[in-house]
Amino acid sequence: MRHNGLSRLFPQLTMPHLSELLSRAVLAGCLLAGGLATAPAIAQSSAPASAPAVAASPPIAATASVPVLPQIKAPEAPANPYGLQAVWHQGDWVARSTLLILVIMSLASWYVLISKLIVQARMGMQGRAANERFWKADTVRQGIETLQKGGPYRFIADSAMNASRRHEGLIGKVDLNTWVAQSIERAVATVHSRTQEGLAVLATVGSTAPFVGLFGTVWGIYNALVKIGASGQASIDKVAGPVGEALIMTAIGLAVAVPAVLGYNWLVRRNKVAMDTVRGFASDLHTVLLAAGGKS
What we know:
- By secondary structure, the chain is an all-alpha fold.
- The protein has 2 domains: 2-42; 84-291, no CATH class.
- Helix content is 78%, strand content 0%.
- The protein contains 10 helices and no strands.
- Helix 5 (93-133) runs parallel beside helix 10 and helix 7 (152-165) packs antiparallel against helix 8 (176-195).
- The longest helix is centred in the last third of the chain and has 56 residues, at 236-291.
- The radius of gyration is 56 Å and the shape is elongated.
- The model is unreliable at 36-64 (pLDDT under 50).
């Protein structure tokens, strides 16, 4: 009946055409109804799944761990293949003997310098004590007892007293003033000679140490050139090392000579100051002995 009514409304459509249109309409309706039914379900299933993921994720600051960086060691400096140790091990007996001579000269100069400074300091203390105590005594003999035994001031005072006591016989024919003055001058000269002991070592070291070091340098360069010529390799690394080792000898010679020269000049200056004090004491002692008539 329906087909008959549709045929009447659309007389140009045949029966096969009508059946095909109805089947397409039914299929489209089913698809539309299925899409509307599944869309809310998909929306409902997707929304709860994403919310717990956001809520369950822990904070980044709580879970993140601070990475521990490994300690980086500083690279060690490579050992110097050229130096004083190489000079000793690679040098021959001439180079080693030169190095030993420089070491001995250095030790001798430092020994003299330190010992003379101690002696000069002690001499200065004895001079101050003599000026404070000797002239306050009642007699020359009592004043001599206040001086330190073995010191230069005690030696000069004893020499002057002995000269005044031995003024007899042939010596008695000499004027007392001249005889006592000569005795005191000889004592002062002896003290001055003692203060000069050891200075010759400093002068010798200061004048010869640079030349000894230069000799070691020349000998080392000679041996280095012989080795380079025998090996047939004249590159910079083959030349710089041996030549640098040889130049160390010159540096050592200068290091030995400079303190010796400075120490010599310093000690000479200190000796001059000390001897001025000694000569002043000797002059005053001479005057006192003449005033006392050679008696203690």
